Amino acid sequence: MNMAASAHPQMSEAPEHSPRIGFRFGLDAARVWPCLLAGCRPFRDGTRFEALPDLRYWRDGAHIRAPANELPNDNDIDVQAYLRRLRRAHPRADIELRVDEPLILDAPLWERARGLLRELLGGVGVPISPVTTALVLSCRASPMAAAKRAAAGDILVQVLLYGEMRWRGGAAEYRLRPGDAIRLLAHGHAMRCEAARALWLELRIPSFAADLETMIENLMTRLLSSAREEEDTPHDLPFPPPRRALSPMPWMQRLAEELSANRTHAALQQALEISWMMRLSTHGLEPPVPVANVARLRRTDRVRLCVESVVRRRVDRRNWVWAVNGHPLAMEDSPALSAVWSRLCDGRTHRVVDLLRTTGPDRPGPEVATWLQRMYALRGLARVGED
Fold it and tell me: In the predicted model, is pLDDT for residue 82 greater than 90?
């Protein structure tokens, strides 16, 4: 599996303006507002650390760590109502609110953002580094977060949901209205953003080649940590130092042997392939939406396969792994499972009872029913009527 080919796609250097594309994917202020409210709710009682979604709030350039009542609440029925309340409380203040990774709270919205990302990137490939998301609401002429993100050397996609936004650089000017999107490349820092009283969705695609090396290093560290037995005694150099040369320490010898072992290389290759499958199923959009508690499928339910959410790969002679919206699902192969999968791949809807009804000795057992339920919980299957 060639990951490097899609690691950092080559794009045109000029900003790309896509009018009205957000509306085609159902991205507008009314649809996004409940997600923004949900992301702000835990922060109205204080602040949280190392948690997602994360929130940042600036007033007149100062980072307010506990904005409390200045955040949107359930009485703010829409963006306009919240902006009016802010203006009454702070008539002349420059205010900016940023919620990072809010889409993990709203699976349908997350899927719409993935569809938008897939279309905007077109045929250039899937980003190998995670694509992060944010909702940004600005009441200032030149948004802080937008400028900093553009200057960070990343590929930046912004979808305007409310208000107006302008990007200027030299003789070029791009004016965005609700539903429009713009894609800026790494040198977007040469452009200036103007977006007073605006709300937008931001997608950030890291564009550094070192990200691939970091991902491999992290995978290798996890593999070695899981393979080695935990030891209570920390490893240290002898003290006082010996007069003669040190012989290799046993734990370092073991580590060197593990690094050079073929089984470690094979495990790393498989881990990379599975990791890449997860990213293909999300088109790079991470983190994935957590698995939700869903009702059990009934035998009379009709389901269809969500082909845009699922990637399948055989990991050995006996087992398959599915990547479903960024989550792994493993299953031992069987003729019954293959038959059910083939029927799901025909593009039609099927009753659950029909999927589980075969003739002869290959009648699906309870493990296939469990697999169907798990696929449904991961949103790899859609129940007709819930689409």
Answer: yes
Look up the pTM and report it: 0.83
Please check whether residue 184 is in contact with residue 147, taking contact to mean a CB–CB distance below 8 angstroms: no
Hunting for tokens 């799901």 — which residue is that?
344
Domain enclosing residue 177, as ranges:
13-205
Q: For residue 307, give the DSSP letter.
A: G
Comparing CA positions, the residue from 43, 171, 153, 152 lying closest to residue 97 is 43
In the structure, how many helices (H) and strands (E) does the chain have?
11, 17
- Cβ atoms 59, 137 nearer than 8 A: no
Q: Is residue 143 a part of any domain in this protein?
A: yes
pLDDT above 60 (res 327): yes
CA 244 – CA 121 distance, rounded (Å): 61
- What DSSP designation does 300 have? T
Closest CA to 47 of 77, 76, 70: 70
Domain count, the chain: 2
Whole-angstrom distance, CA of residue 161 vs CA of residue 214: 34
Q: What is the pLDDT of residue 1?
A: 42
Helix/strand/coil for 382 = strand
Q: What is the pLDDT of residue 58?
A: 92
The predicted structure's pLDDT at residue 194: 78
SS3 content of the chain, % helix, strand, coil (to 5): 40, 25, 35
Band of the pLDDT at 360, cuts 50, 70, 90?
very low
The verdict on residue 314 lying in a domain is: yes
Does 81 fall in a domain? yes
Mean pLDDT of 230-251: 70
Query: Residue type at 248?
Result: P
Whether residue 8 lies inside any domain: the answer is: no
Looking at residue 309, its amino acid is S
